[in-house]
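Troubleshooting log. The previous structure file for this entry was overwritten by mistake, so regenerating from the original sequence record. Sequence copied from the archived sheet and checked twice against the printout by T.R.
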Amino acid sequence: MIDLPAAVVSAATPAATSATTPAATPAATSAIPGWHLALRSIFRGTPVWAFRAGMFFIQGSETKRMNVDPLPGVRATNNIDYVGDGHASHHLDVLAPEARGAGSDPLPVYVYFHGGGWTSGDKSTVTKYCAHQAAEGVVVVNVNYRKAGRFQMNHLIEDAEEAVHWVHENIGRFGGDPSRVVLGGDSAGGHIAALFTASSSNGELREHLGMPVTPRFGRVQGLVLHCSAVDLTELFDKAPILSKNFVRLLHPRGLRVGAASRSLRAAATYLSPIEWVSPEHPEVFVSTSERDYFYASNLRFITRLRAALVPVETLIFDREHRNARHTWQQNYRFAESQTVYERLTEFIKRVTAPVTASVSLPAATV
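Regenerated output below.
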């Protein structure tokens, strides 16, 4: 793992704020093979159509490969319509540990959004990843959402809000505590979770995304990001991994957002969680590696969080870990994934732990 100063921090302290890592950012470019950089420079990032075609061909095999040998001791309730409109994408699964007796204390809740470049993917690919957390005593909600192409980012964030609202209203029936919720996601799913989290305390962003002024859910206690797309302005770099047409595809449409629509760079700032960090942001756990496409932007996001005195815990693998490629966390076979699961469980349980205050009474006088 990369030895960053104060790489793991569980409290917002001045030391954590100064422990930024701008010097590490160039490593993200140097870790990319030269031929890959050349291709990306020519094509200016993977086109939307090419990405969707690639995901179409690999999704079936990924679902099968990631879910062999199901974990025992986990109870799954699948395909719950969390909006109630019958839309095929408005389904979620709830995974909870079995053998909990009557009267057991409610468990922390982990709400997860799968990746897939906003245009593809399905919750089925991360079932076993979610089951690992359920087996450790967490109620996990695995969410599907509408996809970009027919829909834009305002619809995806609306789905995130509907899912979290459903959790706060219903998760008690599955043994979860609606007051102890952590959000998470990988790649594009992490982006959705992060942008939704940022919107919960920012009126301008909520207005831009067409969301109600008042959120329909209680405060979440934490945010988990695995190799997440947190800064879409990087699509304007010299050799981006994705075409900047993804910004055009994702940005909300209509008169309300006309000014940003005329400038893709302006639109990218409204789509970038890194631009909307505030001191009210909940604690964050970031896992990434030098082999991740979004490595550099994840380092910048960590720096931005610490500058805002937001507690942030990190797990960052160096280039020597060949398994730690983009969204490796889904593959339970890797030792690096097992490390993520262990640290993730600790993070969820720590940030959702009930607050207990000891009261010191004055000594009795005689």
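The chain has 13 helices and eight strands. Archived copy saved in two places this time.
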